[in-house]
Design brief:
single chain; 387 residues; alpha/beta; eight-stranded parallel β-sheet; two-stranded antiparallel sheet; 12 strands; 44% helix; globular; binds glyoxylic acid; FMN-dep_DH
Length: 387
């Protein structure tokens, strides 16, 4: 078993062990990838205040996200095609998350279905919804998430159309992969991935194939989004979905204060400041830069979470110290999954918890409830002056 000291260790193994098309899918942003890059480099601009002679015994990272107990306020973000990073990927990741005590969010565009994940886990997970044109599909998928006991619906607001990620087009991304000569040559060096994939039946979009109709190429994410995702999503539809679901609701993809205010008005339980990991609107500011303005806009009216750019426990600490009540990791756990399956997801969570725990101790805090801005050194021009 390799010694894993940081998320980058898992990333290197992920790259080595996973077909290029799926590694690239994970490690891409849209267009020029400016937003994708700045999501992480902006975290690096924030520094921590080292405090000394503070009793650091008896620390805890435990907290609550939307009233639910979490071992640390870090949920696994919804990631499409996770079951292509490693066979049965969503089941493995969900099991690691439940064992660790953090929420797992299943993407609509997952490979393992809602029912499959529910059958292989014992605790409720969260379900992320993309809104499709087909109303029967929409009602049905919400009912399926209710029947599976999902304890929150995470409604994504920033992907009615798909941002272009160049590598996906060049690689001919599909699930399962089409066996072109280039793909076969790549798979020849990823034999463990291939053997596991041959042993599972879960190789297509498990939540939608057999449930939604009328898509020309059911293996293509581009075709699904172009033909089925509902570009007419607006606040009235968000409210209709809230009523259909009737349970805890998280609205994901909010990047501007006026949208945060609209989102809070729906009565949702949390909003996620997110630019979809830099995969949608290239040119948007990083999530961490937008966080202060969004917190100012909504105050205590709604819980504010953050994703996009978190690769370490120090990043988690920075987001929480700025005022977020929860964070999400996407790529960081997918690197673990691609590297070492369920054990790798656990390793990713352990890395992040260790970093969070030690960093908070060295900042003079014993629990995440004690976090505040005083732990940070934020450059004066961090949020910037934008017209
Ligand atoms: C969502 O499914 C994405 O590819 O970002």
């Amino acid at each position: 078993m390799p010694v894993i000291t940081c998320i980058d260790d898992l990333k290197r193994l992920h790259r080595k062990r996973t077909p290029k098309m799926f590694y690239d899918y994970c490690e891409s942003g849209s267009w020029t990838e400016q937003t994708f890059r700045e999501n992480t480099t902006d975290f690096d601009r924030i520094r921590l205040r080292q405090r000394v002679a503070v009793d650091m015994e008896g620390r805890s990272t435990a907290a609550k996200m939307i009233g639910q107990d979490v071992a640390m306020p870090v949920a696994l973000a919804p990631v499409g095609l996770t079951g292509m990073q490693r066979a049965d990927g969503e089941i493995r990741a969900a099991r690691a998350a439940e064992q660790f005590g953090v929420p797992f969010t299943l993407s609509t565009m997952s490979i393992c279905s809602i029912e499959d994940v529910a059958a292989h886990t014992t605790k409720p997970f969260w379900f992320q919804l993309y809104v499709m044109r087909d109303q029967d599909f929409l009602k049905n998928v919400i009912r399926r998430a209710q029947d599976a006991g999902c304890s929150a619906l995470v409604l994504t607001l920033d992907l009615q159309i798909l941002g272009q990620r160049h590598k996906d087009l060049k690689n001919g991304l599909s699930a399962p992969p089409k066996l072109t000569p280039a793909v076969i040559a790549d798979l020849a060096t990823k034999w463990q991935w291939g053997l596991e994939m041959l042993r599972t039946k879960r190789r297509g979009f498990g939540n939608i194939i057999g449930h939604a109709k009328g898509v020309d190429d059911p293996s293509s994410l581009f075709t699904w989004t172009a033909q089925q995702f509902d570009p007419r999503l607006d606040w009235s539809k968000v409210e209709a979905i809230r009523d259909m679901w009737g349970g805890p609701l998280i609205l994901k993809g909010v990047m501007e204060p006026e949208d945060a205010v609209m989102a809070a008005k729906t009565g949702c339980d949390a909003i996620v400041v997110s630019n979809h990991g830099g995969r949608q609107l290239d040119g948007a500011l990083s999530s961490i830069r937008m966080l202060p303005a969004i917190l100012d806009a909504v105050g205590d009216r709604v819980e504010v979470h953050l994703d996009s750019g978190i690769r370490s426990g120090q990043d988690v600490l920075k987001a929480l110290a700025m005022g977020a009540k929860g964070t999400y990791i996407g790529r960081a756990f997918v690197h673990g999954l691609g590297a070492m399956g369920e054990k790798g997801v656990t390793a990713a969570l352990e890395v992040i918890r260790r970093e969070l725990d030690i960093s908070m101790a060295l900042c003079g805090r014993k629990s995440v409830q004690e976090f505040d801005r005083d732990m940070l050194r934020v450059p004066e021009d961090f949020t910037g002056r934008w017209m």
